UniProtKB/TrEMBL annotation:
Coiled coil stretches, renumbered: none
Family: Belongs to the bacterial solute-binding protein 8 family.
Record domain Fe/B12 periplasmic-binding: where: 54-336
Protein name as annotated: ABC transporter substrate-binding protein
Range of residues in the leader sequence: 1-18
TM spans (from-to): none
Pfam families per UniProt: Peripla_BP_2 (PF01497)
Gene3D superfamilies in the cross-refs: Nitrogenase molybdenum iron protein domain
This protein's record includes keyword Signal: yes
SUPFAM superfamilies the UniProt entry points to: Helical backbone' metal receptor
Amino acid sequence: MRKLTAAALCLATTLAAAGCGAQVEPSAAGKSGSGPVTLTNCGKKVTYDKVPERVVTNDVGITELMFALGLENRMAGFAMPDDKGEVKSVPWKGGYDKVRWLSKDQLTKENVLDAKGDFVFAGWNYGFREDAGFTPDALKKLGVSSYVLTESCRNGRTGDARGIMPPLDALHTDLANLGKLFGVEKRAQRLIADFKKRVAAVEAKAPQGADRPRVFLYDSGQDRAFTAGRFAAPEQIISKAGGRNVTHDVADSWTTVGWETVVKRDPEVIVVCDYGDVSAEQKKKFLKSHPALRDVSAVKNDKIFTLDYVDLVESPRNPAAVERLGAYLRKVADER
């Protein structure tokens, strides 16, 4: 997860398989060639001596990356809170039916060992964290290999700032790497090609230049706003859809900004992440009632759009999010 205290998980209950536009194939066996496999993960070469057989994942987006590749038969379980709505109606229903739900919290070493896991797929603030001793190095000492979600790779700029490449590139990188590791490269390349084609189709119709609406992503927070910098998935979901992320200059993925920044940049659209105990409607009510935001264009004109958590973190649902937001931003541009 991004941060347990600031961002829970979300998933729209009305999301149907057709709406996601996913091409769901039968589960892949995940056969690989002989010998070790070397991948580049977070800028470092990592060699895996064998194909993992009991993968444990943390978070909905990461879990669905495995499902999208048809690798549920390689999984020993997943961890995620239970506030994501109905997961039985999504394109990867078969994966959720087959794979064990290990924990409604973040992964622990105990979860992994109890599941006899031999590989953990997680990310920094999406499971991996030093304070709990749940890190790739700690798992290695237990004989468990790991892979770090590329969106969450630390970039060394300041503190624990994350993000080393554009977010959709991170998605494609992880699909390609997992495809190579698990011997499903053709399937991975088909997914990548389909995702690129769908996003390009939205870009071709998107507003251009000065017609591109200014967009702010609101995740949570009242004293300050938890939002997305240029290395989080919303950056490219917004830009490919035809908008301009008003926090593009922040060299981090998920981060916090003051309301004065939001007011100064005057977004014309606010995208709300729907998740957890605080509903999208409650968030909209807060934004509309916040005295500092009363003159912000998006609030004055009631241009507040909702996407799900799983749309807004690295996941196979990112292309569908671009399509949905793209349609909305075209309407906003046309109404000017």
